[in-house]
Amino acid sequence: MSGDSRCADCPAREGGFCGRLPDELKQRFREAVRSTGQERLTDENGAPLATWDVAVVARGSLAIRHTFEDGRRAITDYLLPGELIHADGERARLGRQISTSSDFQVCMIPRLDGAFNTEDRLCLERCIRNDANAHIENLREMIATLARLSPRERVAHLLHSLHRKLNPEGRTIGLPFPRNDIADLIGIRVETVSRALLDLEQAELIRREGPRKIRILDPDGLESVAGG
To answer: Cβ(200)–Cβ(206) under 8 Å?
Structure first.
């Protein structure tokens, strides 16, 4: 399948990493990437495959989990359509694991030194480095923000962030992970997530339309709560 036909219906084509590439590089980039489902992300031992450096999330969601020395596990990052996932065998050996939603697809970027000429490779490396730095800054901002928020405000902050990333022009969002993962990500108990969602619903800021579907009734009001 050609890059253009594969990319044509991709929801992350313009709003994510691919859309931010320089115009002169986009076509060659689309011809080089290869789409695959979640079963190809890792080998049978859970380690990232050695045939790719970076992949773009095209559909679905991805959670990064770490297992600590005491055996506890926690989500330390999550990725949505248009964002980059980096292969890192060393971090996998140190307890980094990737879990994905069932409706998941990525476009793998092959080894840069084998698939691109020198000029394109240097440009891509710069774009990937800039994207990674921006993602790290966003994580730092999220950590600093969550530290000063109440549980209700933390849930509102996550919903507001997902609305802005997933469907800024609409009102309905699908939660990319279950409530226990939400609780893990924002540092509260799963029972507290349920109470916060009920509270936001009673305040007529949101309406739950299924186990993983939320309708934003009052975006400005939700943003106000999310701001603390």
So the answer is: yes
How far is it, in rounded angstroms, from Cα 92 to Cα 7?
29
Reported as a single tens digit per residue, the pLDDT across 122-181 is: 999 999 999 989 989 988 998 898 899 999 999 999 999 999 888 888 899 988 888 888
Please classify residue 133 by burial: count the beta carbons closer than 10 Å to its beta carbon, then call 0-12 exposed, 13-18 middle and 19+ buried: exposed
CA distances from 67 to 44, 72, 74, 173, 182 (A): 18, 6, 7, 29, 17
Q: Which residues, other chains included, contact 66 with Cβ-Cβ below 8 Å and sequence gap of 6+? A: 73, 74, 76, 95, 96, 97
Enumerate the β-bridge partners of residue 63. 78, 99
What predicted TM-score, i.e. pTM, was given to this entire model?
A: 0.78
Give pLDDT < 70 ranges for the chain.
Answer: 1-6, 8, 11, 36-53, 87-95, 101-102, 228
| Angle between the N-to-C axes of helices 190-202 and 151-166, in degrees from 0 to 180, rounded to the nearest 10 | 70
CA-wise closest residue to 106 among 55, 157, 163: 55
Residue among 120, 95, 97, 70 nearest 181 (CA) = 97
